[in-house]
């Protein structure tokens, strides 16, 4: 289920809109391919499918370009299209293709092709879709209240981790790229808080024709935890980083296709050279309960999102994700991709360091410690749709708060690999000696982590 298993309602403006009925029922299928034998690309020429920045990130960490980096075979896609389907996206890391058709029985035709290993229907078009709010900009007031503190509303959620020490040392994220994969970035284009933000681009993997700034406000609040840079009003945890805004979550339905969208989004982030990814999305329950995950599926190898997140680490990107908001419910556990290997999963605490009761619990099914760390997720300071400072609850906001700090830490210690970065973050936690399934390694001190990173540089 999206956004840490709490299905957020659509914006009030959307609820007032008319409903647009789809012309015809449509379906999307995840097609697992057997190989990449017909590829026209070569590992000797990675510049044909990866940016120079993406290649250099691999070089710095001693990571070789391999077959998972090769795009899905175009010849196979064309043969799938010849069956009467359209091609929205693919995952080269998982060697899957997403195909769309009006025929629900299209899966049978796909299975007859020799290069098709498996087919799964992952999306059925909804009966109606809420209209987007075309008057959204009228909500924006951009009214601010100044404080005596330099960080303004963001002060406590930064100082808890000694992030202010990193910032004072000159590490505010400059030169680093962060991709925010979310449900939409409502009004970000109109809100003054983001006028100083270094925006690299936007991309919608749900509906490429949509306006990403008319979609859900969840991504707005998530982004604000990192990217705001207005002294004495609100300063985020990575105010000088550059940002990609990517939409993978379709708030109109809850279907497995959103994992395919997410996989496409994170592979795009890799290809353009992103360093760090924040995702405050998680799924364990769907509209069709036959797709629901079980506890034993939390092994980092079952869900498409967890597999993709682990692949991202293998490519030298740090993925920071929310643990989930199910701690007080019947599920209780973290939600994929929070179970992925070599990612930082963030749970929620209040400003006094007490865990939020809703924060989802570990461990993973294979016994790994989760969550990894904790950050403020109870009354987190965020930006609202009116452009003013607001407050929100959820691990959705704990994740970007820590993500920005981890980005600044990596800027300070560029010699660290993803796994080394995660290790110094673990070691700097206030529960590093006795991690558990509630707090993980605890509240990480990123200034301490920086000094641990310096020691690793000395050993090189």
UniProtKB/TrEMBL annotation:
CDD domains: Peptidases_S8_9
One example GO MF annotation: serine-type endopeptidase activity
PROSITE patterns, per the entry: SUBTILASE (PS51892), SUBTILASE_SER (PS00138)
Enzyme class: hydrolase
Superkingdom as given in the UniProt entry: Bacteria
Residue span(s) of domain Peptidase S8/S53: 173-442
Active site (record annotation): 182, 218, 396
Gene3D superfamilies from the UniProt entry: Peptidase S8/S53 domain (3.40.50.200)
Database matches in InterPro entries: Pept_S8_subtilisin_bacteroid-2, Peptidase_S8/S53_dom, Peptidase_S8/S53_dom_sf, Peptidase_S8_Ser-AS, Peptidase_S8_subtilisin-like, Peptidase_S8_subtilisin-rel
The entry's keywords: Hydrolase, Protease, Serine protease, Signal
One BP annotation, GO: proteolysis
Pfam families to which the protein is assigned, alphabetical: Peptidase_S8 (PF00082)
EC number(s) recorded for this UniProt protein: 3.4.21.-
SUPFAM superfamilies: Subtilisin-like
Cleavable signal peptide: 1-23
Family per similarity comment: Belongs to the peptidase S8 family.
PANTHER family given in the database record: EGF-LIKE DOMAIN-CONTAINING PROTEIN, PEPTIDASE S8
The protein, known as: Peptidase, S8/S53 family
Organism classification: Bacteria, Pseudomonadati, Bacteroidota, Bacteroidia, Bacteroidales
């Amino acid at each position: 289920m999206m956004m840490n298993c709490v299905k957020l309602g659509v914006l009030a403006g959307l609820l007032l809109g008319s409903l647009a009925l789809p012309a015809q029922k449509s379906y999307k299928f995840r097609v697992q391919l057997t190989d990449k034998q017909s590829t026209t690309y070569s590992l000797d020429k990675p510049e044909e499918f990866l940016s120079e920045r993406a290649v250099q990130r691999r070089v710095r960490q001693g990571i070789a370009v391999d077959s998972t980096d090769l795009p899905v075979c175009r010849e196979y896609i064309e043969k799938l299209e010849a069956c009467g389907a359209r091609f929205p996206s693919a995952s080269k890391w998982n060697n899957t293709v997403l195909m769309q058709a009006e025929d629900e029985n299209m899966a049978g035709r796909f299975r007859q092709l020799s290069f098709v290993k498996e087919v799964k229907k992952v999306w059925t078009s909804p009966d109606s879709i809420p209209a987007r709010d075309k008057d959204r900009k009228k909500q924006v007031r951009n009214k601010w209240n100044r404080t005596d503190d330099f960080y303004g509303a963001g002060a406590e959620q930064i100082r808890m981790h000694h992030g202010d020490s990193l910032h004072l040392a000159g590490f505010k994220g400059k030169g680093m790229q962060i991709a925010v994969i979310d449900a939409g970035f409502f009004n970000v284009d109109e809100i003054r808080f983001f006028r100083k933000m270094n925006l690299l681009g936007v991309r919608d993997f749900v509906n490429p024709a949509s306006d990403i700034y008319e979609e859900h406000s969840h991504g707005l609040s998530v982004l604000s935890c990192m990217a705001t840079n207005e002294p004495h009003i609100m300063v985020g945890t990575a105010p000088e980083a550059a940002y990609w805004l990517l939409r993978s979550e379709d708030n109109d339905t809850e279907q497995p296709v959103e994992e395919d969208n997410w996989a496409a989004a994170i592979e795009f982030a890799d290809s353009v050279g992103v360093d760090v990814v924040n995702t405050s999305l998680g799924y364990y329950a769907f509209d069709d309960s036959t797709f629901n995950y079980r506890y034993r599926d939390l092994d980092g190898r079952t869900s498409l999102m967890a597999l993709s997140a682990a692949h991202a680490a293998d490519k030298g990107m740090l993925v920071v994700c929310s643990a989930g908001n199910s701690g007080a419910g019947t599920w209780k556990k973290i939600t994929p991709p929070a179970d992925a290997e070599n990612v930082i999963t963030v749970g929620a605490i209040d400003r006094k360091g007490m865990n939020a009761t809703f924060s989802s619990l570990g461990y993973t099914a294979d016994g790994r410690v989760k969550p990894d760390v904790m950050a403020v997720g109870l009354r987190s300071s965020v930006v609202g749709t009116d452009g003013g400072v607001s407050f929100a609850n959820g691990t959705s906001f704990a994740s970007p708060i820590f993500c920005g700090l981890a980005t600044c830490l990596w800027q300070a210690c560029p010699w660290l690999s993803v796994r080394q970065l995660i290790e110094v973050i673990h070691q700097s936690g206030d529960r590093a000696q006795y991690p558990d399934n509630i707090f993980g390694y605890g509240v990480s001190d990123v200034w301490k982590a920086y000094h641990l990173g310096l020691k690793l540089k000395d050993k090189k």
